[in-house]
TrEMBL record:
It comes from Nitratireductor pacificus pht-3B. PROSITE patterns: 3HCDH. GO terms for molecular function: enoyl-CoA hydratase activity; long-chain (3S)-3-hydroxyacyl-CoA dehydrogenase (NAD+) activity; NAD+ binding. It holds the Pfam family 3HCDH. Keywords: Fatty acid metabolism, Lipid degradation, Lipid metabolism, Lyase, Multifunctional enzyme, NAD, Oxidoreductase. This is enoyl-CoA hydratase.
Amino acid sequence: MSKTGISAAALLAPRAMDLGPAERIDTGAVHWRLARDAQDVAWLVLDRAGESANTLSEAVMAELDMLLGRIEAMKPKGLVIRSAKKSGFIAGADIRDFQGIADSAEVEARMTQAHAVIDRLAALPMPTLAVVHGHCLGGGLELALACRYRIAIDGASFGFPEVLLGLHPGLGGTFRLPALIDPLEAMTMMLTGKTAHTKRAKALGLVDAVIEERHVQNAVAAAMSGKLRKPRGNWKSGLLGFSPARGLAARRMRAETEKRVSEAHYPAPYRLIDLWEEHGGDAKAMQKAEIRSFAALLAGVTAQNLIRVFFLREGLKAQGKGDSDIAHVHVIGAGTMGGDIAAWCAARGLKVTLTDIDAKAIARAVGRASSFFDKRLYTGIDRRDAFDRLGADFSGDGAGRADLVIEAVAENADIKRTVYKAVAPRMKEGALLATNTSSIPLEQLRRSVPFPERLFGLHFFNPVTRMELVEVVGHDKAAERALQRARAFCGAIDRLPVPVRSAPGFLVNRVLTPYLMEALVMLDEGIDKETIDKAAETFGMPMGPIELADRVGLDICLEVARTLKDGLKTPMPDVPAWLETMVSEGRTGRKAGKGLYDYDAAGNPKKKTDTPPPHASLSDRLILPLINACVACLREGIVADETTLDAAVIFGTGFAPFRGGPLHYARSRGIDDLIAELERLREKFGDRFAPDAGWNGLGKTG
């Protein structure tokens, strides 16, 4: 929450959670607390030792099994399960337990034991109630589904994100959720990994009631007396109990899934559909098949690489820890990037002032922010508070009060320096100045700033509201305290900071530009743009380089290409003259409605469907220059280490996550093989494919 104010929701929030009786029963458990209240209701509270959030580790599950035995012997009138963590109920299984497992038989044995514990909970003869606040995800939701009732504290969220790790639910979710709610809604939740917030969860029938924290005792009493009992299931449950009906629905599910991901790259959703189609009418058979399928997926390459990506993300999150001491952000430039940065910061609790020399640009940015708040904030109070924090600053006076000034004007060094000369004298003592430049080295910008130690780069990616990565760009005159505050600021607004050294293109654009430029060379050779994009998508990229260039903006691509062409010794193709013509004519890509592709009213590219499929060699021709540039960045010290580089390229470019990162992919495929392929491409197409000198050192590490 911003230091500048407290929302109405925060003022109304309870000061303490109701965790049942203070007097506990001595059980010897480390992670769980057991108590018995005056109404003879047992309270089982999870507070995992040494962790900020609850997860279901093997130790937690073993203790739960022991405590269920105690509860069976106690024979209370009911059981309440809660979390003592402020952040939420249970965030799922402990992913650390899954890392590096290659034996599916071992996984199957461990999951069978875990299922026995959850089944024991489900079989308790007394009413059982999960009281859920905050997040309830994955294994945590599966534990809650094993209870007879679920009550949500307002603001709770429920979901199965396993598909994002290359898995499907593995602790009973595949059969308990479709038995509780509309099976098609249940499958959609599991196939997409999307969360259902409180109101949606209640509408689905996932929870029995939504309450405020102060009403927990009344809700417990209602559950124990049976007053929450209601009919479960619906007509779809009965219809989809028949195999032919499930078969028809499963075909539609596969068709929709194929629009999003390839089975070869992401098998988990397809295995989930197989499970449901084959066993959806038989819970016992589904349970056995779920365990086998989960074990096979977990031991597979895709899941292990996606689990690696999970930990890469956690590593970037750790960079954002600490206090930034930033409560007020002043954004200069109300274009797409500046306006969206302002909206995001306001949504995350900061006071924001937004200025631009064009008053109409500010108005448009505020309008976009309002639409964003309506879509992404879940209560009217949150939307109102966010809008109150975002101020249209037509005079630019906010620069004198802000803790952080972010410049997001045109990608032109002269324009940026002019802005700094005007704003620096107005800034308060100790305030930070950040540039959102995507490629200009900070050494070229800092000479216009009287306090270079407080100047750094905060390179957000487009679209700001979806791209988590932010490059925190340092230089040799930047103060470490300023850079630490910058990283903490990113953490405070739920972005992933990656520290990089100032250099042309920094990290992400440095590695992305050879990939995009090679695509433009292919266009010049007469290869269809749809074929080029398909080659990248076949490799596993979320979109092809032609569509990506349009998404980034051809004007931005042009400036980055010029910067790298002038600033690097590495051979690069010449910037096509037709690209300069397109930009000068305003055909800058998706934001203009026309670029390399034309776009419909919804912003979707109009692609031909009759173009030839890509030759297998096209993928290497696109991807290997990107990986080669990664090796160069590592050699030059632009980024600290391989894991940080892999994380940044995945979250900054969308590099095929199931491959675990560009350098991880290089090692998996074989470094010698990649070097040999680069040499073959060099012989055919020129020195821009020459293997970087850093490959030699890379082969000796990791």
